[in-house]
Input
Amino acid sequence: MLLSLLADNRGNIFPSTPLGPAERTFYEKETITRKGYTLTFISKDSAFSTATKQKMITTFFEVYPLEAKRFNPQTRKQITFIVDPAYAGVAATDAA
Output
């Protein structure tokens, strides 16, 4: 399973490339905006726990703005989480 949170070497987090045709197939996509931050949550796993998803979203909105304020106020405000059970590697970020 892949949880993809992509970042450059300054801590800016973003998708490194647009989703291609194969990557556009997903079970669920939700975009949430709170206090100037936007999280897009993409799940390619129909069995992914709703409770886990909600905990991830809640944690993101509690922690990320504080970390951004502390370490890089200019960091990205739009973030994407991708959960993909077909991914065979370890969780990764991208430094594009």
The helical segments are 50-71. Residues 37 and 64 are 9 Å apart (CA to CA). The radius of gyration is 13 Å.
